[in-house]
Amino acid sequence: MASVRVCGVEDLVENQASKFVVEGTPIAVVKDSAGAVFAIGDTCTHGDISLAEGFVEDDTLECWAHGSKFSLKTGKPLTLPAYEPVPVYQVEVQGGDVLIDPTVTLAV
Fold it and tell me: With CB atoms counted within 10 Å of each terminal CB, which end of the chain scores lower, N or C?
C-alpha cells in the first residue's frame, strides 16, 4: 500500500495530538515545537483509550486516563501501567502534506 495523505502540516496544532483513521487504522499524529511530525497507534495498550485525547510533552504522548507515557519516536511505554508498546508509523511530509502508510510500522 502506498502512503495516504492524512492532513496538511498546517492543520496540526503544535504539541497536540490529532486522531486520524487511515485505512481502518486509528493513528495519533503529533507535530512538535520543532516542526517534526510523528505518528503512533492511537490506542493505549493498557486500556482501550484514544491517545490522541492525551497530553504531549517533549517527545511523549500521555494517556489521559491512566497516565502512561509513550515515546513518539519508538512507541515504547515510558511509565506504568502500560508495558506494551504502540506501533509507530513512518511519516513523510511532501509539499505540506502529511503522508502515512498504515501497513508499515517502524521497528521498536
Answer: N
Whether 4 and 23 have beta carbons less than 8 Å apart is answered as: yes
**Neighbour tally for 91: CB within 10 Å:** 20
Asked whether the beta carbons of 12 and 31 are under 8 A apart, the reply is: yes
State pLDDT tens for residues 4-31: 999 999 999 999 999 999 999 999 999 9
User: Beta partners for 60?
Assistant: 57, 71
Q: Nine-digit cell at 100?
A: 502515512
Residues 46 and 54 sit within 8 Å (Cβ to Cβ): no
Cell numbers found for residue 7 = 492532513
Q: What angle do CA 21, 24, 28 make, to 5 degrees?
A: 30
Q: List, for the chain, all residue ranges whose pLDDT scores fall below the cut of 50.
A: none
Q: Which helix (H) or strand (E) holds 69?
A: strand 69-71
What is the structure's pLDDT at 2?
87
